[in-house]
Design goal:
The complex is a heterotrimer of chains A (about 700), B (about 325) and C (about 180).
Chain A (H helix, E strand, L loop, with lengths): L18 H6 L14 E7 L5 E7 L1 H5 L3 E6 L21 E2 L5 E7 L2 H10 L1 E6 L27 E3 L2 H7 L2 E9 L11 E7 L7 E6 L4 H12 L6 E4 L15 H12 L5 E4 L2 H7 L6 E9 L5 E13 L12 H4 L4 E11 L12 H4 L1 H14 L3 H7 L17 H12 L12 E2 L2 E13 L7 E7 L2 E5 L9 H13 L6 E4 L16 H20 L8 E5 L5 H4 L3 E13 L5 E11 L6 H20 L5 E2 L4 E2 L17 E6 L23 H13 L10 H4 L4
Parallel strand pairs in A: 1-12, 10-11, 14-15, 19-20, 23-26
Antiparallel strand pairs in A: 1-5, 2-4, 2-6, 3-5, 7-15, 8-13, 9-10, 9-12, 13-14, 16-17, 17-22, 18-19, 18-21, 22-23, 24-25
Helix pairs in contact in A: 10-17, 13-14, 16-17
Chain B lengths: L4 E3 L4 H9 L4 E4 L5 H7 L6 E4 L8 E3 L5 E4 L4 H6 L1 H6 L1 H9 L3 H6 L58 H7 L3 E6 L2 E6 L22 E7 L8 E6 L10 E10 L2 E10 L6 E2 L1 H7 L6 H11 L16 H17 L6
Parallel strand pairs in B: 1-3, 2-3
Antiparallel strand pairs in B: 4-5, 5-8, 6-7, 6-8, 9-10, 10-11, 11-12
Helix pairs in contact in B: 5-7, 8-9, 9-10
Chain C lengths: L1 E8 L2 E8 L4 H8 L18 E4 L2 E4 L12 E3 L1 H4 L8 H8 L9 H16 L19 H11 L10 H11 L9
Parallel strand pairs in C: 1-5
Antiparallel strand pairs in C: 1-2, 3-4, 3-5
Helix pairs in contact in C: 3-6, 5-6
Classes of the chains: A alpha+beta (about 700), B alpha+beta (about 325), C alpha+beta (about 180).
Chain lengths: ~700, ~325, ~180
C-alpha cells in the first residue's frame, strides 16, 4: 500500500496551462519548428502490395530546379539495424505492403518537392498479394504473445462441456473493422543532422510523438548512434491516440533525409492519405463469443476466440481477447488469438488496444444473453460480478463496475425500461436504449525519472513526458505541488525533451501513474536532502519504482456507458441523442481535463459505433477511403447530449496519487452500448460495426 | 503537382478565349474542388484562368418572376438570400446541406455544379479510372461501391455526381447561361450533366472554354412548398448517400403537380420524371409515394462491392422520397 | 512559376514571391511563419486551416495564394487584441476546455468567430427548422444544434465538441448552450 498524497492541488479544476497558446495557435508543433532555410521532404510510395522494386528512375525528378536530393534504396545510407522491417526504410527492394516508402525527394520548397516526387518513376516486379482477412483461412497462426506480453491463449475448466450442459448458451460471431487513429496533426518531423568534429555528429528531431525518449531509443539503435548524439524535442503533439506511441517509418525517413544533407534542416510531414498506410492502425477483428449460463444469468462459461490480422513483414498482435479474462465470473473460460499475416500495412496501437475492440463482442453478447434470459442487461452484469479477478484469483485493488452501472442507470433513467426491442416510436424515429461495461487496466511503466530544482522561489521539475492533449503540462504540476506541499502556482514541470530525464511513452493510460510517481520520488529525494527550506540551485532526482501491490492485486478502472439511439423509420439514419458514461478510475487529478478525456474517448467510441471503417480493397491492398472526407470521424453535429461522470474511488494501492488513468477507458464499451441500443430501437441485432443506416434500414 | 501559369483577364470574354485556345487551360473560381484535384494529381492544367471577379456576384430579379444568380455568387450568400429562402426553400436547404460553412463561403454558383465525382478511385491516381484516364478501366467495379450509382451507370463508369445544389436546380427547371468562344447559349439545367456511357471523362455538355456566367431559376410557384432531404452517414459535413429535392402541390388530398430530383444515385442530378408522372393526380398517401419511387427506380441496378455494395440505396431512396413527400404534403398520419 | 503578391496578415503587410501552386495556408505557414492555422488534411476535409479573409471564414488549404493578392487575413493569433489579452472566444475555449491537443483549435476559433457573425446576420443553416424564418436564437436547445451544425466543418479528433459548443454559445450570449 502506497501513501496517498493529501490532495490540495490534486482534484482542483484548473485550466490548461498551455490553453492560451493553443487557442491562439502559438503553441509550436513539430512541422512548425522555426529553423533556417529548411528542405522539404516528400516520399514516394509503393503502388503494389507485394513484389520488389526493379528500377527507380530519378532523372526527371533530379533535373527539376530546386531539387537537392532524391533518395532511393540504391543510395540511401545503410542502417545499423534493420531488425524492425517497418523501420528499415530504403534498405531493400522488397515490397511488404502497398504504400511502403520506396523513394524520397528533398527540395527547397514544398511545391517542388511534391512535383519531383510525382516525377520519380518506379518499376516493380509485382507478385500476387493476399490482403483478405477471414476466420476460415488455413494459415492462421498463434502468436507467441499478444500486445504487449500477454499469453495468446488461456483456458480454465472445460468450456466445451459448459456449452454442452448449460441451460442457456450463446455462440455468436462479432466483427470490428479496420480503424485508423487519425490524429488531427499528421505525423511530422523536423530533422537536423549536424556533423561535429570528434563526436561523430548530432541529430536533432523535432518530432510529433507520444514519447521523446522512446523515439531516441529507436533512432539510436537504427542509426547506430549514442544517446547523447540524438535529441528529440516535442513540446506539443496534435493528438496521437497510439499512432505516435512508437516511431513509424516517417521518423526514420526524416532522419535519413537529414543525414543526407548535413547541416540543413529537413521537414517531413505525412499527408493525410499517407497516414493510412504508414502510421499504424487497429486491426479488423473477428470475435467468436461463447456464453454458457444458468437460468438465473450466472455464467458457467465464457470464451472468446479472436481472429485478426498483422502484416507479413512485422507482427503486431492486438490483445482483443484479454479483457474477457478478468471481466466476469465463470468457472469455465477460454480465450484465444489467431493471426493472419497479410500483405498489408503494419498494425499498431490505437486508443485502448485490446480493450476497445475486445469489449465489443463480449458486451453485445451479454446483451443478447440478457434478452435470451429475459433479464435486465444491467442486472445480468451485476450477477456476474466476480469477487476476485477470475483469471488469477487475486483481489482487485478496487473494482466499482457495479457502482458505475447503478449510478449510470440512475442518471440515465434506466429504471422501468421496457426490454422488448422495436416497440418505441417517436416522431418517425425508433427509439432504444443500451448499456455496456468499460474496463481498462491501471498500468505503470518500469522506467521514468524526474528532477526537481529549486530556483528563485519556484520549484522546477523536469521529465521527458508528453502532452498529446491529455493535460500533462497541467496535471504534473498539480502532482508535484502536492508532493512538495507547495502552491501549484509555484511549481513548473517541463516536459517534451530528451534533455530532461528519461520518461516512458504516453500510452496505456500510464502517464500520470508513471511520471507522477517519478515526480513523487524526486520530491521525496529533494526533501530528504534539503528539507523544507531549500536554497537556490538545490536539485534532486527520483525514479518510478515497481509497485509491490501489483503482486497482490489486479488493478483496473471500470465504467458503464448508457446510450439512447434513434433510428429513422424511413431512412434508417442512426443518431445518438444521449450517451452517458460513469467511470471509476481512482482519484481524478483534474476534473476539467479528466472530463475532456472521458468525453473525447466516448466521442471516438461513437465514431467507432456509427462511422469508422477503413476500407482496405483486397484487390489492391490499400485503404481506398484514405482521407477525412471518406473515413468519417465524428463531426460536431454527431454529438448531442454527451455526459461523463465518475464515482469517488479511494484506491490506496495504485500509486501515490490514487489515480488509475483516464485516457482510454472512455472508448471501451461505447460501441457496444450504441449497438445494443440500436437493437433495442429496431429489433435488428448488430454484430458488425459500424452501425450504418443500411444495416438497420427498413425493407433492406 | 505540375506547375501552372495564372491569369486574370480583364473580362469574361477574354477569359473564355484564354481557356479556349489552350487545351491545358482551365477556369478557377472558388477553387474548392480544383485545388483539391491539383494536389491529388487528378487535374494537371498548365494555365489557370481566374474568373472569380469576372462574372456577376449578384442575384437579380428576372422579368418573369425568377432569379438570375451570377456565377460568382458564393454558396453561402445564395443560401442566405431572402428571395431564395422564400421562393425556393429547396435550393437554400440543398446549399446548406452541402460541405461546411467555410467551403460555402468559397464555393460559387458556377463552380458548384461542375464539381467532380467523389469516387475514391477517381481521386486516387494510383488506380485505374476511365473518367480520369480514359481507357484505363474502372477500379470502382467490384470495389468499394457504397457511394456509387444505381441509375444510368455504364460498364465504364459508375460514379455519382456529388453536388447538393445541383439536385435542387434540376428539380427547379433552372437554366444555365453559358459564354463560349462563339458567344452565349442557354442550357436547361437537366441537360447540363451527362451520363457516363462511353465517354465517362465528360461530366457535362460544356465544351472546352465554355464558362457558366449565371444560373436562372424560373418563377415556380410550386417551389414555395419544397424541401431538400439529404441522407448521409455523418450528421453533417458528408456527401450524400442519397438525397431528394422535391416540390409538391397538393390540394384536397390530391397531388396536382410535383418536381423531384434525386442525388447520390447517378452520374448526374437525376430528374425523376417518372416519379412526377406517377404522382400527378394521385392521392397524397405513402402508397402513392412508394409507387412513384418504384416507377423511378424500375431500372435501378445496384453495384456489388467488397464493402457490401450499394443495393441498400434502392430501399433508402424509396424511404427518403416517401419521407420527403409525406412531410411536404403535411400529412399527420402514415398510410 | 512564381508570382508576387501582398498579404495583410493579422494587421501586418507582407510582400512575398510565391509559386503559383502555393496555397494560402502554405504561404502563411511556410513562407511567413504564421503557423496559427494548421494543416490537418490539405484537402478541405477537416477545417484546421480555417482563417478569416475579409472577415469571412474560409479554408486556407483550398485557397491559392496567388488568387488572394491584397487579401486581409486574420488568424486566431491575430484575433487577440494584444499579446496579453484574449478574444472572448479564446477565453471561452479555455474556460470550457474546448480542446485537448490544440491542433484543430485555432481553426475552431476562427470558425467560431465566423459562426457568431453568421448568426448575427440571421443566416440559416441545415439545423434551422424554417429556412425562411431563419435561426431561432432564443431557444438554448435550438442554438446548441445550430452551433453544432455550423461548427461541423471543423473536425476535432480529441472530441471536444461539447466544450466547443458551450464556448460558442457563451459568447453568443447564452448561459448554458450545452443543454441540461
Amino acid at each position: 500500500m502506497t501513501t496517498t498524497l493529501e490532495p490540495r492541488a490534486i482534484g482542483r479544476d484548473l485550466a490548461r496551462r498551455d490553453g492560451g497558446a493553443k487557442v491562439r495557435g502559438t503553441a509550436v508543433y513539430a512541422d512548425e519548428t522555426p529553423v533556417a532555410d529548411p528542405l522539404f521532404c516528400r516520399i514516394v510510395q509503393a503502388t503494389v502490395a507485394r513484389g520488389r522494386v526493379t528500377e527507380v528512375d530519378t532523372a526527371d525528378a533530379s533535373a527539376l530546379d530546386g531539387v537537392v536530393a532524391v533518395l532511393t534504396t540504391a543510395d540511401a545510407e545503410r542502417l545499423a539495424s534493420t531488425d524492425d522491417a517497418e523501420l528499415a526504410v530504403l534498405q531493400g527492394t522488397g515490397i511488404g505492403f502497398r504504400g511502403q516508402i520506396v523513394a524520397a525527394v528533398l527540395a527547397g520548397t514544398d511545391e517542388v518537392a511534391r512535383e519531383a516526387a510525382d516525377l520519380v518513376r518506379v518499376t516493380y516486379a509485382e507478385e500476387e498479394h493476399d490482403a483478405r482477412l477471414s476466420a476460415d483461412r488455413d494459415d492462421l497462426y498463434t502468436p507467441e504473445s499478444v500486445n504487449p506480453t500477454y499469453p495468446p491463449d488461456t483456458a480454465e475448466g472445460d468450456m466445451a462441456a459448459a456449452m454442452a450442459e448449460a441451460p442457456v448458451t450463446l455462440d455468436r460471431t462479432y466483427t470490428t473493422p479496420m480503424h485508423h487513429n487519425n490524429p488531427m496533426e499528421p505525423h511530422a518531423t523536423t530533422a537536423l543532422w549536424e556533423p561535429r568534429e570528434g563526436d561523430g555528429g548530432h541529430l536533432t528531431l523535432w518530432d510529433s510523438t507520444q514519447g521523446v525518449h522512446p523515439v531516441r531509443q529507436t533512432v539510436t539503435q537504427i542509426f547506430g548512434l549514442e544517446p547523447e548524439q540524438v535529441r528529440v524535442i516535442c513540446p506539443f503533439v496534435g493528438g496521437g491516440f497510439g499512432s505516435k506511441g512508437t516511431p513509424h517509418a516517417n521518423v526514420v525517413m526524416a532522419a535519413l533525409a537529414a543525414r543526407a544533407v548535413p547541416g540543413r534542416p529537413v521537414r517531413l510531414a505525412l499527408t493525410r492519405q499517407q497516414m493510412f498506410s504508414l502510421a499504424g492502425y487497429r486491426t479488423p477483428t473477428i470475435q467468436r463469443m461463447q456464453l454458457a449460463a444458468e437460468r438465473d444469468g450466472r455464467l458457467r462459461g465464457i470464451a472468446i476466440d479472436v481472429v485478426e490480422q498483422t502484416s507479413r513483414i512485422k507482427e503486431f498482435a492486438e490483445q482483443t481477447g484479454v479483457p474477457t479474462r478478468n471481466m466476469y465470473a465463470a468457472p469455465n473460460r477460454r480465450t484465444t488469438h489467431r493471426l493472419a499475416a497479410l500483405d498489408v500495412p503494419v498494425p499498431s496501437w490505437m486508443r485502448a488496444p485490446g480493450e476497445c475492440p475486445g469489449m465489443f463482442g463480449p458486451e453485445v453478447a451479454m446483451d443478447e444473453l440478457a434478452t435470451a434470459l429475459g433479464l435486465d442487461p444491467v442486472e445480468l452484469r451485476i450477477r456476474n460480478e466476480p469477487e476476485v479477478a477470475p483469471e488469477t484469483g487475486k483481489p482487485f485493488s478496487s473494482r466499482n463496475l457495479v457502482a458505475c452501472l447503478r449510478e449510470g442507470a440512475e442518471r440515465f433513467g434506466w429504471a422501468g425500461r421496457d426490454h422488448r426491442p422495436g416497440v418505441r416510436l417517436e416522431d418517425g424515429w425508433w427509439v432504444g436504449t443500451g448499456v455496456a461495461a468499460s474496463v481498462y487496466p491501471t498500468m505503470r511503466m518500469p522506467k521514468s525519472t524526474a528532477t526537481v530544482t529549486y530556483d528563485g522561489g519556484r520549484y522546477v521539475a523536469r521529465i521527458g513526458a508528453a502532452d498529446l492533449g491529455t493535460g500533462a503540462w497541467t496535471v504534473l504540476p498539480q502532482i508535484a505541488a502536492d508532493a512538495l506541499g507547495a502552491p501549484v502556482e509555484d511549481v513548473d514541470v517541463l516536459i517534451g525533451d530528451t534533455d530532461h530525464p528519461e520518461a516512458s511513452v504516453a500510452g496505456g493510460s500510464s502517464g500520470t501513474t508513471t511520471w507522477g510517481s517519478a515526480l513523487v520520488e524526486a520530491v521525496r529525494e529533494f526533501r530528504d536532502k534539503y528539507g523544507d527550506a531549500p536554497q537556490d540551485g538545490d536539485a534532486a532526482s527520483g525514479s518510478v519504482k515497481p509497485n509491490p501491490a501489483e503482486e497482490e492485486y489486479v488493478m483496473s478502472a471500470f465504467g458503464a456507458q448508457f446510450a439512447e439511439v434513434r433510428v429513422h423509420t424511413d431512412t434508417g439514419e442512426v443518431r445518438v441523442p444521449r450517451l452517458y458514461g460513469v467511470f471509476a478510475a481512482g482519484r481524478i487529478v483534474n476534473p476539467r481535463l479528466a472530463r475532456s478525456q472521458f468525453l473525447g474517448a466516448m466521442t471516438m467510441g461513437l465514431g467507432m459505433a456509427l462511422h469508422e471503417q477503413s476500407l482496405l480493397d483486397p484487390r489492391t491492398g490499400h485503404v481506398v477511403n484514405h482521407d477525412l472526407a471518406e473515413y468519417h470521424v465524428p463531426a460536431n453535429a454527431d454529438v448531442d447530449d454527451l455526459q461523463a461522470h465518475w464515482i469517488d474511488e479511494d484506491d490506496p494501492y495504485v500509486n501515490a496519487m490514487g489515480s488509475k488513468g483516464v485516457g482510454e477507458i472512455g472508448i471501451v464499451g461505447t460501441a457496444a452500448a450504441v449497438a445494443n441500443a440500436a437493437w433495442h430501437a429496431t429489433g435488428v441485432r448488430l454484430r458488425d460495426l459500424p452501425v450504418t443506416l443500411d444495416r438497420v434500414l427498413p425493407g433492406r | 503537382m505540375r506547375p501552372f501559369a495564372y491569369a486574370t483577364p480583364p473580362d469574361a470574354r477574354e477569359a473564355v478565349l484564354a481557356v479556349a485556345e489552350r487545351p491545358d487551360a482551365t477556369f478557377l473560381a472558388g477553387g474548392t474542388n480544383l485545388v483539391d484535384h491539383l494536389r491529388l494529381g487528378v487535374a494537371a492544367p498548365g494555365l489557370l484562368v481566374d474568373v472569380t471577379a469576372l462574372t456577376s456576384a449578384e442575384i437579380d430579379d428576372l422579368s418573369d418572376g425568377g432569379l438570375r444568380i451570377g456565377a460568382a455568387v458564393r454558396n453561402s450568400d445564395l443560401a442566405a438570400d431572402r428571395r431564395v429562402r422564400a421562393r425556393y426553400p429547396v435550393l437554400a436547404e440543398a446549399l446548406l446541406a452541402g460541405a461546411s460553412g467555410q467551403l460555402r463561403n468559397m464555393a460559387t454558383t458556377g463552380g458548384n455544379p461542375l464539381q467532380r465525382t467523389r469516387c475514391v478511385y477517381f481521386q486516387d491516381v494510383t488506380t485505374p479510372c476511365n473518367k480520369r484516364a480514359p481507357g484505363s478501366g474502372c477500379a470502382a467495379l467490384g470495389g468499394a461501391t457504397r457511394n456509387h450509382a444505381v441509375l444510368g451507370a455504364s460498364e465504364h463508369c459508375i460514379a455519382t455526381h456529388p453536388s447538393d445544389m445541383a439536385v435542387a436546380l434540376a428539380a427547379l427547371d433552372a437554366r444555365v447561361q453559358v459564354l463560349g468562344p462563339d458567344g452565349e447559349r442557354e442550357i436547361p439545367f437537366t441537360e447540363l450533366h451527362t451520363l457516363p456511357g462511353d465517354t465517362p471523362e465528360r461530366d457535362t455538355v460544356l465544351e472546352h472554354g465554355e464558362l457558366i456566367t449565371a444560373i436562372d431559376v424560373p418563377d415556380l410557384p410550386i417551389a414555395t412548398r419544397s424541401r431538400y432531404r439529404k441522407v448521409r452517414d455523418r450528421a453533417s459535413y458528408a456527401f450524400a448517400l442519397v438525397s431528394v429535392a422535391a416540390c409538391l402541390d397538393v390540394a384536397g388530398g390530391e397531388i396536382r403537380d410535383a418536381r423531384i430530383a434525386l442525388g447520390g444515385v447517378a452520374h448526374k442530378p437525376w430528374r425523376a420524371h417518372r416519379a412526377e408522372e406517377a404522382l400527378r393526380g394521385a392521392p397524397a398517401t405513402d402508397e402513392s409515394y412508394r409507387a412513384a419511387a418504384a416507377a423511378e427506380l424500375a431500372d435501378a441496378r445496384p453495384q456489388e462491392g467488397f464493402d457490401g455494395g450499394n443495393a441498400f440505396k434502392i430501399p433508402l431512396l424509396t424511404g427518403t422520397l416517401v419521407s420527403t413527400l409525406r412531410a411536404l404534403a403535411g400529412e399527420e398520419t402514415r398510410a | 512559376m512564381e508570382t508576387e503578391l501582398t498579404l495583410r496578415v493579422d494587421g501586418a503587410t507582407h510582400h512575398l514571391r510565391v509559386d503559383t501552386r502555393t496555397s494560402l495556408l502554405d504561404a502563411l505557414r511556410q513562407r511567413l511563419g504564421a503557423t496559427s492555422p494548421k494543416k490537418g488534411c490539405d484537402h478541405g476535409q477537416c477545417g484546421a486551416c480555417t482563417v478569416l479573409v475579409g472577415g469571412r471564414r474560409i479554408l486556407g488549404c483550398l485557397a491559392l495564394a496567388v488568387a488572394h493578392d491584397g487579401a486581409e487575413v486574420t488568424t486566431s493569433a491575430g484575433l487577440a487584441p494584444g499579446p496579453d489579452e484574449a478574444h472572448p472566444v479564446h477565453r471561452a475555449f479555455v474556460d470550457h476546455d474546448a480542446f485537448q491537443c490544440g491542433y484543430c483549435t485555432p481553426g475552431q476559433v476562427c470558425s467560431a468567430v465566423g459562426v457568431l457573425d453568421e448568426l448575427e446576420r440571421g443566416w440559416p443553416s441545415a439545423a434551422t427548422a424554417d429556412v425562411v424564418a431563419g435561426p431561432d436564437l432564443g431557444d438554448a436547445r435550438a442554438l446548441d444544434r445550430e452551433i453544432a451544425e455550423r461548427m461541423s466543418g471543423n473536425l476535432c479528433r480529441c472530441g471536444a465538441y461539447k466544450g466547443i459548443r458551450a464556448a460558442v454559445a457563451e459568447v453568443a450570449g447564452v448561459e448554458d448552450g450545452a443543454r441540461r
